[in-house]
Amino acid sequence: MRITITEKQASVLQAILENSMNSDIENEKTVAYTLLKQIINEKHKHSSEKQKHAAKKATKTRTAKAKNKIENAVNLLRLEKKEITTYSVSLASGCSFNTCKKYKHYWEN
Fold it and tell me: Into how many domains does the chain fold?
């Protein structure tokens, strides 16, 4: 289950959990420690808008490159009158088998 809480709510929850760490009940300590670790870890996962934009741009570029390689490989195989399979496209394009499988619709009609 995933919940979204504000920074203030996280701070309050963190304080409660830290108080629970002083508890005599071992199970309560374990649960409190686990939750505390997750809260602290979540605080450090944020990425800036600039990073998100850069990641999207890089992904777009990689995808376009892979599609282009696969299209070229399919055209080459057609010119050579060779059988066009996911494996042969993978070998000719230099892309992974799974990537070629994802773009199988380029040569299957």
Answer: 2
Is residue 36 one of the residues assigned to a domain?
yes
CA dist., res. 12 & res. 15, Å (int): 5
Cβ density class 48-67: b for 16+ within 10 Å, e for less: eeeeeeeeeeeeeeeeeebb
- pLDDT tens digits for range 81-97: 999 999 999 999 999 99
Task: State pLDDT tens for residues 20-48.
Answer: 767 666 776 677 677 777 766 765 566 78
Model confidence pTM above 0.85:
no
User: Nearest to residue 107, comparing CAs of 87, 84, 81, 82?
Assistant: 84
